[in-house]
Specification:
By secondary structure, the protein is α+β, with helices and mostly antiparallel strands. It contains 2 helices and 2 strands. It has a domain at 6-78 and 108-112. Helices cover 22% and strands 14% of the residues.
Length: 134
């Protein structure tokens, strides 16, 4: 937060937290007995244009799921990704039918998944509540 871009970083943190809160991503609760909360951390990234200029700043609050144990804390994993052959097919169809392709970024796709098990995360709002009234 000491960088010259700190005002921009605070703005993207506010945007991320607003998105999380608007989607009712979590509920604050007391930790049940025999439960271990997972940690979390902020991921900051500058998205660059092809010429090296900054396109946008991104901040994500992520849970440290790598601390979970397979078969104990979770059983299945799934990450939706497009295969290159699917992308090539779509580009070919666009070319054949004279269509237009628009790219969009879905920021909160994973915030809308339903979990079949409760996951507890430690709070980490140091940056976000720094300038906010309590």
């Amino acid at each position: 937060m000491d960088s010259r871009d700190s005002a921009i970083w605070k703005e993207v943190i506010d945007d991320e937290m607003s998105s999380v809160l608007e989607n009712n991503t979590w509920v604050l609760s007391d930790l049940p007995p025999c439960s271990k909360p997972l940690g979390c951390k902020w991921i900051f990234k500058k998205k660059m244009n092809f010429n090296g200029t900054i396109n946008k700043f991104k901040a994500r609050l992520v849970i440290q799921g790598f601390r979970q144990k397979p078969g104990v804390d979770y059983f299945d994993t799934y990450a939706p990704v497009a295969r290159i052959s699917t992308i090539r097919l779509l580009i070919a169809l666009e070319s054949i039918h004279n269509l237009f392709i628009h790219q969009m970024d879905v920021k909160t796709i994973f915030l809308n998944l339903n979990l079949d098990k409760d996951v507890y995360m430690k709070q980490s709002f140091v940056f976000w509540f720094q300038d906010k009234p309590m």
